[in-house]
Amino acid sequence: MSKGNTKGFTIWFTGLSGAGKTTLAHKVHEFLVARGIMNLEILDGDVVRTHLSKGLGFSKEDRDTNIRRIGWVCQLLTKHGVPNIAAAISPYKEIRNEVRQMVGNFVEVYVKCPLDTLVQRDVKGLYKKALAGEVKNFTGVSDPYEEPDNPELVIESNRETVEESAQRIIAKLEEMGFIAPKEHKYSKEEEEEIAKRLESLGYL
Amino acid sequence: MSKGNTKGFTIWFTGLSGAGKTTLAHKVHEFLVARGIMNLEILDGDVVRTHLSKGLGFSKEDRDTNIRRIGWVCQLLTKHGVPNIAAAISPYKEIRNEVRQMVGNFVEVYVKCPLDTLVQRDVKGLYKKALAGEVKNFTGVSDPYEEPDNPELVIESNRETVEESAQRIIAKLEEMGFIAPKEHKYSKEEEEEIAKRLESLGYL
């Protein structure tokens, strides 16, 4: 089995805070490793803010800079054949389209969830604060979110399981020719390598 | 010939403005392509400032953030088997060592040139301005440059040709096991691919 996939692509998750972008990114990662793709990189919005965007805030301008920067790194990785997943709210259509142009092999996935549901769940307690006016520029409450016009996929995270969503994304990657269809039989050695990798990532 | 080298590494050029970091980076790139390494990425300080570090200035803090950010991208590329070259003044020892730790396969190359020579050449006219006090925080004139204690290589760019320097870097990469020794005979097809690549990069 080759150490890495030679075809680079970017899966770009966009959607409101709490919609399930990060969880889904990790499930897709798990599924891709199980398909023998060992070299995927996840660029999670929150993590990337530490390394790439320290000092940037949540104004439109700062958000745009943050997204362009993540997009530039996605573009670099894709160009060099490294599949990658970005998970960032990325509320503005224009900048997402800019990133799409820059990257090329781009799979925009809109992780959609009704605001009501997000407010009810409110895992991090942020919606409550935003609705009380304690957090400014909160996307979906006090800051705009522009839905994609033509995303490659819409995931309704309140209606399907994470496994179902991840499976649909894998099918889309096959359809777009970014990964090979699953017909390959793995050797015992390959299956061991996959199991080892899944374990090291904490998925097994 | 494989599309890419599977071993990632970072060649980190440090040195004063005008010492020849960018020129040398491109010569090393040319030599590496000629060795069949097709997937190298150059992160040039000036270029990277547009994509990664817009808004950062030249205070110690901003310089440190800029270098850490470039280092983080080098680390990503190296991790995924993409050889890369960073060319940035990177005046502070501590931050360069931080990047070294983060990257792992790290080849620090100090591109050394006496200040007198740089002031005489003054290709961009910046030293004149710095000496006249018109440019603030100019490394080597009004801002410190800390020489590396134990770089993998010191290039005296006023005493050797660019070709000699690039050749020494290639030899160092072989010695460190990052590229295979040149004993491989290329097929006609491989040689054509190399020539095509060199031409597309403007080196032929």
Describe the protein.
Two copies of one chain form a homodimer. The first copy, chain A, is an alpha/beta fold and 204 residues long. Chain A has a domain of 138 residues: 3-Layer(aba) Sandwich (Rossmann fold). Chain A is 45% helix and 12% strand. Chain A contains eight helices and five strands. In chain A, strands 2-3-1-4-5 form a five-stranded parallel sheet. In chain A, helix 1 crosses helix 7 and helix 3 runs parallel beside helix 4. Chain A is globular, with a radius of gyration of 17 Å. Chain A starts with 9 loop residues before the first strand and ends with a helix. At the A-B interface, helix 3 of A face helix 3 of B.
Let me know the largest β-sheet of chain A. Answer: 5 strands, parallel
Taking all Cα atoms into account, the compactness measure Rg of chain A is: 17 Å
Strand content of chain A: 5-15%
Largest interface comes to: A-B, 20 and 20 residues
How is the CATH topology of the domain at 10-112 and 146-180 in chain A named?
Rossmann fold
CATH C-level class of the domain at 10-112 and 146-180 in chain A is: Alpha Beta
The residue ranges of chain A in which pLDDT falls below 50 over 5 or more consecutive positions are none
- Quaternary structure classification: homodimer
Overall pLDDT of chain A, averaged?
92
Report, as a whole number of angstroms, the end-to-end distance of chain A.
20 Å
Share of helical residues of chain A:
40-55%
| CATH homologous superfamily placement of the domain at 10-112 and 146-180 in chain A | P-loop containing nucleotide triphosphate hydrolases
**From the helix content, strand content and strand pairing of chain A, which structural class follows?**
alpha/beta
Choose one word for the global shape of chain A.
globular
Query: Could you give the count of β-strands of chain A?
Result: 5
Number of helices of chain A: 8
